[in-house]
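User: Working on a comparison across species. This one is Endoplasmic reticulum protein from Ceraceosorus guamensis. Can you predict its structure so I can line it up against the others?
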Amino acid sequence: MPRPVASTPHLVWAAGHFFTLLAGLRYLLGTITFATSGGGLSAWYRIAYLGAIVSYGVVVYKSFGVPQANKAYIQRALMDENVQYLFLALYWWFTQPIFITLVPYTTFSLFHVLTFTRTTVIPMVFPTSPAASRAEGASEPIGFPTKVSKMIQGWVKQNYDPAMRFVAYSEVLVFARVTFGAILLRNSLLAPLFYAHFCRLRFYMSSFTRDAFQHVSSELDKATANPSCPELVRRAYLMGTDLISRYASTVLNLQNQAAPAAGGTRPAAAGGATAQ
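Assistant: Here's the predicted structure for Endoplasmic reticulum protein from Ceraceosorus guamensis:
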């Protein structure tokens, strides 16, 4: 049996996720261990997002082709989750590093790297011989590469939903971080506005994101309804939630119009459409 051959776009896509995973973990580790920004730590942040831009760029190009300056193309593209994450990665790449923004991208890349390793790397390094293929299902011991492949497959399948819920809650935290960061002048005032637009699209397109925001909103409702909560805080919270609800509802018409064009099966995670 010939070894599987990965196409160039597929390899570029995978390389981007490898860079995002490794550089992202390096930057996150450096941040939580209170390493200084010196020594090139911020460079790992840029490398991680550069990998994300490459990976999502490959997927978007394979899905939509050369960008076209017409309304139908733009509407269809903007409702695609890979396009949304591509634009977001570009924005984070150009702005001041905010470590928590890397959490969703690193999580996605972990799953894509594992899947690529199982479906491409292991078969290329340990090709299955015709005799071994015919022996599948026999009582002979399973080889180590096959065991590793099955272990990866089982882990990915078992942890996919929890990981997507983790990503959704991390995106809620990112929204809170950039909002308070803008108030405290820790980041650009544009950041919460840009990220709010991203979140409202994710809210209507992702059940994980929707559940996360609704759960956090429910907990905040309970906390602010408590008699011990200052009235000023309660009023500010109600005003903020009203503004958010009004802003978020404006995406409904766009979502309904673009639904036929954005149809199809949901990828395993953002950036999941591996370019072949």
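For your comparison, note: The two ends are 20 Å apart (CA to CA).

User: Helpful, thanks.
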